Amino acid sequence: MKKMIFIIGTGRSGTHLIGRTVSSHPKIDGFIEHPNFFILSALIGAFQDIAPFSMETVLKKRLAKRYLKELEQNPMDFVMDKSHANIWIAEYLAKKIPNSIFVGVYRDALPTVSSMLKHKDVMRWYKILPQARKNRFLGITDANKKSFRNFSIEEKCVQRWASHREELFRLRQVLPKDRYMLIKYEEFMNKPGEFLQELASFIGIDNSFEYEKLEEESLDKWKSNLGKTQIENVLTQVELFENGIT
Asked: What is the CATH number of the domain that holds 194?
């Protein structure tokens, strides 16, 4: 039976690397932010708390149909899609695509925020979406919606990171263990061999992945990209999140 593999997480957290790694397997046909899937996925995630329910329902059905069609027509038994915003509809996709599995990816806050700040498409959402309404995609909650607009951009990015991280861990509680695997980017980078074997077992395939070796210095790029005040702001917001204040 064919299997659909979804790579999900927050933007700039290593989902591209995991997606490329999974796609490197000769028995897996991989799509990384393919327009046929990615655009709908991003729209659903970004506007889930803003758009009318009927519109969200239509878009979700349309996206699920596209995945089912691809799975049916693709000659490969394993098909992967890396549209990280599918984090917000993972439960829905799990129901509509029975033989689907999910790989969630998260990363520490400082490198994630550092990468977010350098990515124009990530920054664009702060211009498009309202910042005074609850929005899980941006991390705007009932608790912070009055102050969110006045946050520094790095503090806003932390809210988004926190909201996505929280959802990734929530999914671990609601999706079956044989359908959901959670990977921390830093741990994957430090012990790729162990994670690739675990990933192969989870997918149900031999370990023929081609690991993309990256320079260890890439893990610490944020130290030169973020200023002292930015680092302090990020760490303060992370602490508030971990203490359940934001």
From this structure: 3.40.50.300
